[in-house]
Amino acid sequence: MSDQLDIEARLSxxxxxRLTAFCATLSERMFPNFALFSRLAEFGDAQQLRQIxxxxxxxxxxxxAKMNFEVQLDKVESNMPDLDAFDMYGASPALDSVLAxxxxxxxxxxxxxxxxxxxxxxxxxxxxxxxxxxxxxxQMSDEELVRFINTHDMMLQEEAFVDxxxxxxxxxxxxxxxxxxxxxxxxxxxxxxxxxxxxxD
Length: 201
Fold this sequence. Notes:
YP_001051499.1 fold like; single chain; mainly alpha; about 70% helix
């Protein structure tokens, strides 16, 4: 497993297209969190965000399809739930998912490793929050809670997922549609999100 500073250093070494692919892979895995919330809360337009994320994958695959990512930023922003307006927990991971997509679009526009770090942190914090809300114990000290979260199976899976994505992106060889397909499949995670949510009926 890699620590946070090591991962950030590794991300800073990647070229822009690989940074964008890293963001897209984590965003793909987080997407069901928004899709399910959108359906249950009747909020936002999950299909619109699905098309935007598909557009990022098409861009990475060099399929010839064109999308103006700057224009899409406003559409993504309009799908961000206001946490004060919802009393259901699902709004929080849904917001994380939309913020991750926003950073993914930003990564396509600017060669900035901080966008990839932002997506990395959103995904990790989403998992940590879920573990705390569903399994945390009020009797735990802060140190015990941090240890509990960091050694939880779901967090270990999160770290393993990030490592796998990074290893694929760091491997020798060209950045090509075959690699993009592999990353997209990894991100789909058999239709389960980073916190085990699926929007499949």
